[in-house]
User: Fold this.
Amino acid sequence: MDEQGGGKRMNIKKATFIEEERAEILREFSKSHPNHIYKRLLALKAVDGMRSDEAARISGLCHTSVNQIVNRYKAEGIRAIVGKRHNHGNRYMTLEQEKAFLAGFREQAEAGKIIEVTDIHLAYQKAIGHPATRDTIYYILKKHKWRKAMPRGQHPKKADAEAIEAYKKNHRNDPNPEKEAAEPAGDVPGRGWVWADQ
Assistant:
């Protein structure tokens, strides 16, 4: 049984590094890195000659994370720890490709046409050759500082100003006199006695 108790054996490992690896870790540790990478490097620095649960307490990570960091470092080197693992900024197109893609829609918008996201979405999927979410389109539009189009100021079939003024003057002369108030419904089938007068 493990000293941690509870009857379950924790996967606690002890790691040792050779002198070149220690120097490489210290060199990267002395550079400026984001906090999550700094924690990884701290875990690597601390785990040398120590158990992974002890290094986890020092670095503020879980011992299984420390084990994964050590394994990744041993298999792939320091770039696996400090390198950029994901590039979500340009998922399907480069920035230049996105600008060229949106240029056609910009011309249409400047000509006065209302551009809908659905049209951009369909054209984008055709351009990249596979499905993409609408969120991708909204992300691209935000990234390229496109603003949301405001609704039109008036309905296209709105009456002209003269007709509106004529209605305002004559609506009191409506041939239908005002109707009398409706009688209360009384007892309506299907309603309980509580609702009879409403």
